[in-house]
Specification:
The protein has about 220 residues and is an alpha/beta fold. It has helices at about 20-30, 55-60, 80-85, 100-110, 125-130, 155-170, 185-195, 200-205, 210-219, and strands at about 10, 35-40, 65-70, 90-95, 115-120, 135-140, 175-180, 195-200. It has one domain: Alpha-Beta Barrel (TIM Barrel), CATH 3.20.20.70. β6, α6 and β7 (about 175-180) form a beta-alpha-beta unit. The protein is globular and about 40 Å long. The relative contact order is 0.18. The structure holds 5-O-phosphono-D-xylulose and cobalt (II) ion (CO). Keywords: Carbohydrate metabolism, Cobalt, Isomerase, Manganese, Metal-binding, Zinc.
């Protein structure tokens, strides 16, 4: 399957130099990034801790591109308003974060933000059908969440293709994002399967030429 839909690249800040976050955000925008992907980890839902809304707020003034906040925290509901206030444009969360995904997505929309649902590698696609009228983005995790630099799980390509069919059938304007182990090589497979937003941490921030890395992912 080939695609003519625009491909957006969302570098994951998790792989940036944390001592120079403001500069890194400005540099990645200048290099052609479409969105900034911000991974929020609580050491409970996932076995790692990253940063919270105060860091998101501090970074907001360093770039104009949309801030795509990927919540890996449980519970997420008590923090949705804080991330919205901090400058998130899109807030995504995992069904497993509980307790009520449908209500959480309604809350994100009520805060005036775009909403996303995230599927772990072992999470079936069926949950998306139940909330398809409440999401602007579906994120397929191609690694288990918690860390950057992991290897792409190829079984997720068929999930991306299934979701592309569900999104087209719904008639809604929903982005299909893939996150984890995305490189110039696996990006091609993701795009062919139907993804249109690629998250990449190591494959961008791990290089010395961010613009070339982003162009390489776009294909
Ligand atoms: O959400 C996550 C990990 O939980 C991702 O956003 C990673 O940060 C992607 O990093 P790479 O696999 O591209 O290095
Ligand atoms: Co992420």
């Amino acid at each position: 399957m080939s695609s003519s839909r625009p491909i957006r690249i969302a570098p994951s800040l998790l792989a940036a130099d944390f001592a120079r976050l403001g500069e890194e955000v400005a540099a990645i925008e200048a290099a052609g990034a479409d969105w900034l992907h911000l991974d929020i980890m609580d050491g409970h839902f996932v076995p790692n801790i990253s940063f919270g809304p105060s860091v998101v707020k501090a970074l907001r003034k360093h770039a104009r591109m949309p801030f795509d906040v990927h919540l890996m925290i449980a519970p997420a509901d008590p923090y949705l308003a804080a991330f919205a206030d901090a400058g998130a444009d899109l807030i995504s969360l995992h069904p497993e974060a509980g307790p009520h995904l449908h209500r959480s997505l309604q809350t994100i929309r009520a805060l005036g933000k775009k909403s996303g649902v995230v599927l772990n590698p072992a999470t079936p696609v069926g949950v998306v059908a139940e909330v398809i009228d409440l999401v602007d983005l579906v994120l397929v995790m191609s690694v288990n969440p918690g860390f950057g630099g992991q290897s792409f799980i190829r079984t997720q390509l068929s999930k991306i293709a299934t979701l592309r069919g569900m999104i087209e059938a719904s008639g809604h304007d929903i982005a299909l994002q893939v996150d984890g182990g995305v490189t110039a090589v696996t990006a091609k497979d993701c795009i062919a399967a139907g993804a249109d937003v690629l998250v990449a941490g190591t494959a961008v921030f791990g290089t010395s030429d961010y613009a070339a890395a982003i162009a390489g992912l776009r294909g």
